[in-house]
Description:
Chain A has helices at 39-45, 94-97, 110-120, 163-166, 172-181, 198-209, 222-230, 243-250, 272-281, 289-299, 321-326, 338-350, 369-378; strands at 2-8, 11-16, 28-36, 61-69, 81-84, 87-88, 126-127, 144-147, 155-156, 190-194, 214-219, 234-237, 258-261, 305-308, 330-333, 362-365, 386-389. Mean pLDDT of chain A is 92; it is low at 267-277 and 283-288. Chain A has 2 domains: 2-171 and 337-389, Quinone Oxidoreductase, Chain A, domain 1; 173-333, Rossmann fold (3-Layer(aba) Sandwich), CATH 3.40.50. Chain A is built from 13 helices and 17 strands. In chain A, strands 3, 4, 5, 8, 9, 16 and 17 form a 7-stranded mixed sheet that branches. Chain A is an alpha/beta fold. Chain A is globular and about 60 Å long. Chain B is α+β, with helices and mostly antiparallel strands. Chain B has one domain (27-181): START domain (Alpha-D-Glucose-1,6-Bisphosphate, Chain A, domain 4, 2-Layer Sandwich). Chain B is built from 3 helices and 7 strands; from the N terminus they run E-H-E-E-E-E-E-E-H-H. Chain B has helices spanning 49-57, 147-156, 161-178, and strands spanning 37-45, 69-74, 79-86, 90-102, 106-111, 119-127, 134-142. The longest helix of chain B is centred in the C-terminal third of the chain and has 18 residues, at 161-178. Chain B is globular, with a radius of gyration of 16 Å.
Amino acid sequence: MRALTWQGRxxxxxxxxxxxxxxxPRDAIVRVTSTAICGSDLHLYDHYIPTLxxxxxxxxxxxxxxxxxxxxxxxLKVGDRVVVPFVIACGNCFFCQKQLYSACDxxxxxxxxxxxxxxxGYAMTGAFGYSHLTGGYAGGQAEYVRVPYxxxxxxxxPPGVDDDKVLFLSDILPTGWMAxxxxxxxxxxTVAVWGAGPVGLLAIQSAFVLGAERVIAIDHYPxxxxxxxxxxAEVINFEEVRVxxxxxxxxxxxxxxxxxxxxxxxxxxxxxDNVVDEIKTAVKLGTDRPHALRQVILACRKAGxxxxxxxxxxxxxxxxxxxxxxxxxxxxxxxxxxxxxxxxLLAMILxxxxxxxxxxxxxxxxxxxxxxxxxxxxxxxDCTKVVLKPGLKQAA
Amino acid sequence: MTEFLKRTSYDDAPLSxxxxxDATRAEGSATPRxxxxxxxxxxxxxxxxxxxxxxxxxxxxxxxxxQNIERIDRIxxxxxxWVVLAPGHKTxxxxxxxxxxxxxxxxxxxxxxxASVRNSGRVEFRDSPVGRGTEVTATIVYDPPLGALGxxxxxLFAREPKIQTRQDLRRFKQxxxxxxxxxxxxxxxxxxxx
Lengths: 396, 194
């Protein structure tokens, strides 16, 4: 089959790789019809995440048609259309039974689980196409994918619903939703969102659905701020104004009740020398990124809530622990428990309460995935979301 | 009645967390010496104690999650013959005998005769105090072949008992909770779970 493979920093290629096969009884094989490039894929593209190997198939936002199921799968049938959560979860362990799917104890194979235990104290959960720390599972930017525990993760999509409407159930829609849910929004609340990328924009939409009075988005790309406005947010361009002061003034001196960091930090601290170099070389945003979380903590009102969907990997330098403690902030974060939200969010899409397709700026054939990565990386103003369609014919 | 092995009489930390574990405190081992290596690890498995005990007591099941064990042949109800992969594509073999067996709670075993790697082990099954299933603690005591150098070589091949025990218990948990062993490998390279 054809698949997007990682070869090195800023080097991804579509290559012919072996077709996936059923390995375990609960597996399924999915023929991919749509798959997206995620902001967190750029961390891989930039090689901030360790343990990538040359030839790894990337991609964790995908959907398609079930073409084969293992003997122990009682849920899926060949021909079902499914969206697949990026988190691989067994459904049986202590964590899965508490619906804490992104903390699943079993999906990361024993050898790779060991690596993440050394980094974080406990083994991390498996995920598609996201380095060997999360299991080394081949990803979804491919024609076919092997889906483990396919009786737990994939959600069946009713016929007649367009791929684009439901594709983001795989990651960024539940991620934006959980980011807003983690704000514990109360009537009258103002929520401030740092980063008007796909997750930030969907967090804005979700925050309004969850009852926020106002949402204020912070970014510096004019087009992304326009998209935030289209979702009903007020906007702040951090290149033009002092963000904390603007937020204080805009909220009557109280400050935002909840703040969302949808920026994240390109993994800090795996190798110290590397971090210093990488931050210096990162284009423009690089030096601003560690700044975002500090600003979130300083700008949040006393006894407010801080929600961090942005990806962090290592250590943060000069973390304002004093402001966090003295103001009595509550922090909630984590990889998204996607499976917990699938049914609810699918229903809300079908009812028209959530509408994520406005994000999509580009639809490309899988063969042009490397162009998609380059655009997403270098043209962040206009290129808001790239969806790859393995079935789409390549333009001549 | 089994007891969680304690490091000392005055604290509650298990032997496995000791900075300098004393093998003579690992009960169940036949003739422990102070300089024997001790490795121990606990996992919580969301299955009943009796089920886990029964699976483990059928020793021929162990190669399904213990990757370095090629096979275990039953000699009689207490004795078995173990064929174990060693660093450098070699195998080592020994006979082992069950030294303690409390149904649903404890299994202990020990190599017999002149085993090339003198070793003993025990696995304990305790109800999780808050209804989360069973806490399983495996403890292995062994005389490292070639001492520290052998241990270093083994580590390079990921067959160092501490790493091996940790990974084996992960696979045991996966197999018991999900019915399969997690892998990202294609079928020909995947761990044998069946």
